[in-house]
Amino acid sequence: MKYLDEFNDPDLARQQFDAIAASVTRPWALMEVCGGQTHSIVRNGIDQLLPDEVELIHGPGCPVCVTPLETIDRALVIAARPDVIFCSFGDMLRVPGSRDDLFKIRSNGGDVRVVYSPLDAVGIAEANPDKQVVFFGIGFETTAPANAMTVVQAKARGITNFSMLVSHVLVPPAVAAIASSPVSRVDAFLAAGHVCTVMGTAEYGPLVERFHVPIVVTGFEPLDVLEGIRRAIVQLEEGRAELENAYPRAVASEGNRPAQAVLADVFEVCDRSWRGIGMIPASGWRLSEAYREFDAEHRFEVTDLHVEESPLCRSGEVLQGLIKPNQCEQFGSTCTPRNPLGATMVSSEGACAAYYQYRRLDAGKGITVGR
């Protein structure tokens, strides 16, 4: 319980807020990349307590939110098959496809199961040799090692009725896409600490040099986030752009080398479409040739789906940091967690879900309604 208490200390938080206020002299916009950081910020009111000169922009760091619509529709087609047991983490079941979601498929008789580990799906495949078992493998670099090891285990154990629908995305290319956008307002980035525990920090140094923006690796507790903000503001005020690690208790510069080795064996880099954003070159992983037999997309021949997003949903602008969730005309009315237009309203790390859950219903900074 040490970190739950130590990194939520209100007195230390006040000191951090005071240090930030003493450092800032002009407006700056910082983007927290991870949706977990967004929820920590909104839940604790960090954005409302910061000086007016400091704006936090919510980035695309929610893998559920950026899973492309065509991938969701592929999952729905596969899950509806009578010969399939479709396994997923629970946060994917409410994500809307073109017409349905996985909950609707399950209510119509599809065998859709929530699992707590990808290895659970391998066990289900062993127990049901007459069924095809598919695991929905999504996420950033954080969840990829466990998914990779699951495929390694399935191959080693000769389990041929298991496959994975893969939609892994990579954070550094997304940061580069945002920084290079002509409409970007981001002056500095708060990088996702859990991604860096796996991959290390080496990929961010070239981005700092290329775009001349500070990147500070941060954790997820309130004091972690505040320390990241403070370091970024100090750099900006001093005219510096450097890579800093503000999360050393979890992140080493080299990352997790054994995990990286497994990833390099099981996956290969590919172009990936991000929901609401579009295609980002070299921003995803797919199964390598050595493990292609476990690729559900090819096993079930669902590669040629073409879809269109709802014209009402502005989640793409939210994911790019162009608007806040409560600046969308549909937020809280047409679009709610019970009837979402986009994944950002139903994901446990979605920015729209955070604003709705913590009653940020008014678009003005510093105004909270109903709580």
Summed up:
With 371 residues, the chain is α/β, with parallel strands linked by helices. Helices cover 38% and strands 19% of the residues. The chain has a domain at 65-170 and 255-299: HypD, alpha/beta domain 2 (Rossmann fold, 3-Layer(aba) Sandwich), CATH 3.40.50.
Description:
This protein has 371 residues and is α/β, with parallel strands linked by helices. The chain has a domain of 151 residues: HypD, alpha/beta domain 2 (Rossmann fold, 3-Layer(aba) Sandwich), CATH 3.40.50. It is built from 17 helices and eleven strands. It has a six-stranded mixed sheet, sandwiched between helices. Strand 5, helix 9 and strand 6 form a beta-alpha-beta unit. The longest helix has 16 residues.
From the N-terminal CA to the C-terminal CA, the straight-line distance is 28 Å
CATH-scheme architecture of the domain at 65-170 and 255-299: 3-Layer(aba) Sandwich
Strand order of the largest sheet: 4-3-5-6-11-10
Helix/strand-derived category reads alpha/beta
The helix content, as a percent range, equals 25-40%
State Rg: 21 Å
Main sheet summary: 6 strands, mixed
Task: Please report the number of helical segments.
Answer: 17
What CATH calls the topology of the domain at 65-170 and 255-299 is Rossmann fold
The CATH H-level homologous superfamily of the domain at 65-170 and 255-299: HypD, alpha/beta domain 2
Shape: globular
Order of helices and strands: HHEHHEHHEHEHEHEHEHHEHEHEEHHH
Poorly predicted segments: 364-371
Care to count the β-strands? 11
CATH class of the domain at 65-170 and 255-299: Alpha Beta
Strand % is 15-25%
Q: Average pLDDT value?
A: 91
